[in-house]
Design goal:
Layout (H helix, E strand, L loop, with lengths): L2 E4 L4 E4 L13 H20 L22 H8 L1 H4 L12 E3 H4 L8
Antiparallel strand pairs: 1-2, 1-3
Length: 109
Amino acid sequence: MDVAVIMPDHVHLIFTLLQGEDELPCSLAEVMKGIKGVSARRINQLLGRRGLLWQDESFDHVVRDSERSLAKFEYVCNNPVRAGLVSCADEYPWLWRSWVEGRRDADMQ
């Protein structure tokens, strides 16, 4: 995970797809299904509710290595600023950046 920002009605993520046990990259659809499934269950538990949380369709975009640029990261990080939720990205509590908050790669091994 490089960057994640949770907005009131959507989420932005930039991450690298890892290889599965078959040595092939996991598909974006697989990863998003996992993220949506786990997060929906947990959010519903916290809210004491049941049912669908996420829309079936998402607006996924694969960022190719050649597109991985500071501009993409800044765009995602500044989403709360453009939405008028904060005056600068650092003020937003639902923003996570690997280069600021740090990676947890060691925790995942």
